[in-house]
């Protein structure tokens, strides 16, 4: 991994003071395969490389590797940690060796999702309707990578609600392809999903109520970094702390990437269409 030089380059005095960035502007960003993570990682790769002369490597890894890699300095930063519940178990072993920075998205959702035409409203009702949700030979909940936090929480849900279901783990795209097929035939299907996600713009979906609260309350998304990044590159830290997105801005970014089928192309198009918002993050950091 390429690490920052600790030598800083003064860029000059601006209206709000001195702004400094690292001499060696090489960064490795740890990513995972969630749709919003892919979207914002490629957005920042393009912004930093094409407009601020950074050299960015995106490294797609599992959750456990991501956190251990940040703690050991193999990655410089990662753009997504859900707190206070979802990602807390991944952070806990490295709490003193990972710097959690500012919130950039508020009010996430997480849980079991069905098409709105499904005659069900609560996770508890799945037990009585199990036969309607058969997939590959038995009642099933379609999920993503088994190492994801939502997969572990879903195992807890199956146990807590005594559901006669198996969780089928695969990739996010594979799960969405199965949901798309069921939706087009207006068949029941239950999947693990989260907000923000482009699926809620493409399909009429609903979360099943979770009266036991296994999935927790709405959370916020922060970015995190290896220790010392704020000292090595205070300008970048300020920019990322100034970064904020909401359902509209993040949803349109993910939708553009899904439409183009290319994360970099979609992110670049979105940046061009949202120049005022993007510039505000840079201006806020500089000011």
TrEMBL record:
Keywords linked to the UniProt accession: Cell membrane, Membrane, Signal, Transport
Residues in the signal sequence: 1-22
Residue ranges annotated for the ABC-type glycine betaine transport system substrate-binding domain, each copy included: 25-272
Residues spanning the membrane: none
Subcellular location: Cell membrane
Protein origin, superkingdom: Bacteria
Entry protein name: Glycine/betaine ABC transporter
